[in-house]
Amino acid sequence: MHLLPNYDELLIAYRDRSGMVDPSVELAAARIISHVVVRDGRVCGGWKRTPVRDGLVVEVGPLGALDGKAKAALHAAARDYSQFLQAPVQVTGI
Q: CA 82, CA 21: separation in Å to the nearest integer?
């Protein structure tokens, strides 16, 4: 599970992006160039960040059904992002 920024080369570098989007999740075309959540190499949702007083809130969706392992992986990605930012990151929407 990865939280990729907008315009990441995973999606921008290709004309045909159909193989990179999980077919079980319906996303608007505009979400493909926004911040995306990637699971097993395929886009399964989007995310946006909102600065708050003590860090950042990352709101994710739609992701489809997430089992415990996928939720743990998403929280691990948020922890990595938190380390990068050197600020607390809270995940919402799951």
A: 26
Helices (H), the chain: 9-12, 68-85
Compute CA distances 48 → 6, 14, 19, 51, whole Å: 10, 23, 23, 10
pLDDT digits (tens, 9 = 90+) for 26-64: 655 545 557 889 988 888 888 999 999 999 999 998 667
Give the type of residue at 17: R
Global pTM value: 0.81
Question: Do 58 and 77 form a contact (C-beta atoms < 8 A)?
Answer: no
Distance CA 16, CA 42 (A): 13
Distance CA 66, CA 73 (A): 10
In 3D space, the residue among 4, 10, 9 whose CA is nearest the CA of residue 81 turns out to be 4
Interatomic CA distance for residues 75 and 33, integer angstroms: 22
